[in-house]
Design a protein that fits this description.
2 copies of one chain form a homodimer.
Chain A (H helix, E strand, L loop, with lengths): L1 H14 L14 H26 L7 H14 L21 H4 L1 H23 L3 H22 L4
């Protein structure tokens, strides 16, 4: 029993946030929320970029890699938005304060991006590069729309 | 056409790594690899911790959240290991240099962790807290085995 508790304590420690309210995606500190969403955006950007390199012909189309990329972007596009919590506009973040002042617009751009990324995910998993080319540009634009308004480079 | 290319250029820029060889999970700079694997471990830790809080009774069991957690940990447990590339033992990383000297042991611990996390993922998605409790401790131990050997706190 002692060993089990110690593993659980370890688990909470590595998660970097003492519960309560994990399940509601809350954070012990605002910087934990920043760290979390940066993690999600890093994976989203990397795997979207991986597909972009195939679309652009910089690397050969690889259906196995595309399927992984498709899985990752589908999930990663949904995760970070719970983490724009109050007070997390400070520190190591590229999020502009306008996000918290223009929630309706930000949410609208989020929804559009998620819809476009879902199309790219499906196309990436279809194993057909032409499918991917057909939907990639609009998804890239949907990322850019938000970055242009709400992201500054660190 | 010009617009399309510009979105593609943007895509590669946000991915933070100029191809070639995205699909082979290579990185323009070693610090990109560090950033990528930290992103994956952050999501893994957070969502594993979310399940841990339910197992421990710190938050009520929430089957919808558990299903999301299960999806994320299944993917996130597989992603970071491609990113322990040569030269990425420096900078903002908690990875100990022993990783690159003890590849067989590191790989073995990785495989065991991934197998245990797959069990937790399935249990999390079953909607049954008892299933989750039955497999959670061993998975936590499998994380800890690697951290004890190969991770230092930043």
């Amino acid at each position: 029993m002692k060993k089990k508790l110690s593993v659980l304590a370890f688990t909470l420690a590595i998660a970097g946030a003492a519960a309560p309210a994990f399940a509601q995606q809350q954070y012990a500190k605002a910087e934990d929320a920043v760290h979390y969403r940066r993690g999600a955006f890093t994976l989203l950007g990397y795997h979207f970029g991986s597909l972009g390199a195939m679309v652009q012909g910089k690397v050969p189309f690889n259906s196995a890699q595309a399927a992984i990329d498709g899985d990752v972007i589908a999930i990663a596009s949904k995760l970070p938005f719970h983490a724009f919590v109050e007070g997390s506009d400070k520190g190591q973040t590229g999020a502009k304060p306008e996000i918290w002042k223009e929630q309706a617009k930000f949410t609208d751009l989020r929804d559009k991006m998620q819809a476009e990324v879902a199309k790219v995910s499906a196309a990436a998993k279809s194993g057909n590069l032409d499918n991917l080319k057909a939907v990639f540009g609009a998804a890239g634009q949907s990322c850019k729309n938000c970055h242009d308004n709400y992201r500054r480079r660190l």
